[in-house]
Model the fold of this input.
Amino acid sequence: MTKRALFLLLFFCPFFLHPFAIAKSDAASASRPPLIPQPREFENRPDVKLAGGVWISASHADRDDAFAAKDLTDALAERGVREKASPSATHIYLLHDSEIAAKRILQHEGISLDEAAQPEGYVLVTGARAVYVIAHSSTGIFYGVQTVKQLVTQVGGEFALRGCKVRDWPAMRYRGVHDDLSRGPVPTLEFQKKQIHTFAAYKLNVYSPYFEHTMQYASNPLPGLPGGSMTRDEAKELVSYAAQYHVMIVPEQEAFGHLHHVLRWQQYAPLAEVQSGSVLTPGQQGSMQLITQWFDELASIYPAPFLHIGADETFELGRGQTSSDVNSRGLGAVYIDFLTKIHASLQPLHRRLLFWGDVAMNEPALVTKLPKDMIAVAWHYEPEPNGFVRWLDPYTRAGMETWVAPGVNNWNRVYPNNDVALGNIQGFVAAGQTAGSTGMLNTIWDDDGEGLFLEDWYGILFGAAASWQQGTSDIAQYQQSYGAVFHGDASGKVDEAQRALIAAHLVLKKAGLEDARNLYFWIDPWSVEGEKIGAKLLPVSEEVRTDAERALTLLAQARGTASLREQDALAAIELGARRIDFLAFRFQIANEMETKYRGIYQQQQNPDARRQINNTLLHISSANGLCQDLRDGYGYLRSTYQDVWLKENRPYFLNNVLAQYDMAMAQWIDRGNKFRDARTHWNELHTLPAPEEMGMQPAKSN
Done:
């Protein structure tokens, strides 16, 4: 029998010989399986056994559907479920709602894909030996396939697919991730493909790379450093790759502020509002020429209907070349006028322009002057108990389309603060849906250059859930699903590890600190500022370390009981836990060293105390000394950090971060040597150097 003949036999039999062969459970179970995002409508049914393998067919003559079928085949093969074109296999059919077979199933089930569901929605129905994904579009077919992937389980060595009846479609049209490529990490093309593949698996459909100086332009080649920026060819390859996954790339090129790395070049210095600044001068003819050249090139590379012009945090506006104009017309008028001129200059590109909403929102009366086809991207990165209305109102009242931009709260932290991130994403996305926002961009920023994207998946996937699901997404439900869905961890230990790291952040916040900041990781505990931080951190250091080490233990246990997925992301979680643990450890050790040394220094004339001085100095600095503990800690974390960095990023900028590890190691090596010399000095002359000579602050007077 030919493959085509086999297809016809298998395809038509379920519907025309057995029109009611779709199995139903007597009653829907109260519990849903872990899914990200959760479908809009879900009914449990008996599981479908996959012991005989699967056979996937896309009957519609559509290249996109064939790609969806291959995507599912590949994903199941990675899990150990093989494709078999035989009667013993479970059949997975990908059908368009216009096909006769699909219509019969929909009619039998009493279910439909109405107009709201048609662009991206799907129906998923399981039978005794079959799975049916039905959609109006190839995009809907693709998203149904992503849900099928998540429904596959393994119990006692046997694969099965959770039986169900699903009708699902997104709450928001545009669901994306905005990734900072300009403040340190610049991902490899290979990793960007991994990002897009993963975004699509969780029904995200927008990727927005953020450029200040890291997109290479033929018209303006100086800022985009070779090896530290995306080339035109890389960008075009990524666009083509993303299209297969129904992801559009919306580039953001800052066109007003945040342009220090451009304006520091002599060629562009006259365009700066202030010398060595970051803001373009609106009144300079060269400013608009530069913007037009950039976006002409972007439009020729990225075919999406949107371009993002940035225009946030223009703090220097009015402080330099435009001071007289701002003084006479007002800051808001000058700002709004420049955005309007940018819009006019880029109109021949026939793209809708997104811009950050933080500046114009403070001038609601002037917002009405902006072109109505511009899209305001409102951003705010904290949970707001009183709501997010003020970030959206100026634009909705003016009749403008809005997107919302929450954040994963990764910036300036040794690991993202997911307590803040989840609360912010939950509230802002729900508020956006209520206000009629059509899109969501979940933001990642790398302000200090140390951010690792692999640490951010927890917040990214919740953004995917919140923007697809209608209304206010359930954080607790998500936290119970993440480990199973993303990592294949049935034990729940990965979820517990994430909660333990959230707890560490909360402990620091309750102690009067912000959270697990990079500042606390790098600052010298013996500096003036370090002592202030230590006064708050030390009382809770044991609790912080207990939470971080609990996370490490849970991750190790989870890995020991199953072959988990997304190993690189697990390595990044582990790195974050180790850095939080070490952050608190170094303050403990530095305090212990200082306390012990001040004690022996003050008691060096006491005959009883003198006998312990040599041992105390050996405890502080020797093969197993405290100085060496800090040296070793930074050294190990340096190597681990480098490993994770190179899993996702180009080498560009890495040395800037590693240099901090090197300096921290050198500091404790130097101090270890000083304590070693102090021991020699003690043994020979029976006197000790003052604590200040060892790097400590002068003792405070009572």
Remarks:
- DSSP finds 25 helices and 16 strands in the chain.
- The CA atoms of residues 6 and 158 lie 26 Å apart.
- The first helix runs from residue 3 to 16.
- Confidence is low (pLDDT under 50) at residues 1-29.
